[in-house]
Amino acid sequence: MKKVILFFISVLSITACTKKAIAPKISDKEITYRSEIVTTRNNVSGALNFDTILTMYIPNAFTPNGDGVNDVFHVYGTGIKSFSLVVYDRWATTVFSTTDITKGWDGKVNNGEEIADSGVYDYQINATDKTTGSNHNYTGELILAR
Length: 146
Description:
By secondary structure, this protein is mostly beta strands. About 0% of the residues lie in helices and about 50% in strands. The protein has 2 domains: about 5-50, no CATH class; about 55-145, Immunoglobulin-like, CATH 2.60.40.1220. The termini are far apart.
């Protein structure tokens, strides 16, 4: 008789897994969970894969002072089918926008002609999950410090 343990993932929950659960594989491109599952009805086991789970890291501050450290506000993520980022100043004027997650805001405004003032900026992020097609919206504040 196989021992059954409970195994929970923050995005999904799997209720019955054997003791042979494999730790998540994490790379720069994707996160894949792999676990052997057992159904009690037919006593059948098999592998279950969850490919490319949506994850995002959104920093809350950056320092575009040219020292080469933390000079760009950059959102990082995996499992993203589509992405958009808009950054607003305190008057709700768009100072930066992109649909390319590999591009970030360097702290310049007016088409790169001026350096933005230090202070708090708002952002809005819309991302579509690659696996499920679900839309995720994030809003928050960002500190630009010089």
